[in-house]
Amino acid sequence: xxxxxxxxxxxxxxxxxxxxxxxxxxxxxxxxxxxxRRVVAQEGPALLFTRVSGTCFPVVTNLxxxxxxxxxxxxxxxxxxxxxxxxxxxxxxxxxxxSLWNFRDVIAKAWRARTxxxxxxPVLECRVDPPALKSLPRIVAWPxxxxxxxxxxxxxxxxxxxxxxxxxxxxxxxxxxxxAGMHFQIHRGGGFxxxxxxxxxxxxxxxxxxxxxxxxILAAVAPLPENVPELVLASLMMGGRxxxxxxxxxxxLPIVAEADFxxxxxxxxxxxxxxxxxxxxxxxxxxxxxxxxxxxxxxxTAGMPCSLPx
Length: 310
Description:
Low-confidence stretches: 273-278, 292-310
Structural class: alpha+beta
Mean pLDDT: 83
Shape: globular
Number of strands: 17
Helix content: 25-40%
CATH architecture: Roll
CATH topology: Pnp Oxidase, Chain A
Order of helices and strands: HEHEEHHHHEEEEEEEHEHHEEEEEE
Number of helices: 9
């Protein structure tokens, strides 16, 4: 399996000379983001900030800033697979036994691209109770931003009627230690789920992951049809089944075992008018962290926590 978690991807970047470590203290209020922007403009390396003011967690940015790093994250196999899918769409209408046999490799890979149910995972090894969101890196990227944000958050929700899941990337603002603003775009999967939950007079359960396999991060922003699960796409890009955990004592939703941080909460119904348009409030009820290695600390990528060697 390619890069089963973010730590393995960062080790790959180190070996390839694609990761630059910044040991000087950096302010998450504007300074960190400005350094990031200047490096991106020059097509520079990924950056690991080991000393970020106001937090014990380091921050990594610019993970996917070049084609080379995207290739290191997921390889070339997904590209070849999608080309075969395109060929199959042209040649399998109407389907015939001989045509299906010619594309048996596509069928086999699609069958293998599922999640793998596990009894537990690193992300469940440590619980922060009560939640302490303000201990995370509170990055303010622009002077007119409303406050500090978690960027690259992987937000998982399920349709309250059909149970169909969606993984999206919705910018999340830190209000206090147990409350975050959730920017649901009304034309996206999470927005649809929130609309249906509000219509049924229910809060919407949410799992917010930070860190995790790089394929999962890329899958969250892929322009997929609503009926194609992002978790399955992540499995396909990883070349193996994505490990997930079902632990209803922690969350009613599936948990990505190799995520670095898990925020579990609910979005109350009809709270969008309390904040800026398209934004809602998420009450954080649980916060879990990945502490598999006692010498490793959590880290954030462009504002997203992950686990890194010191």
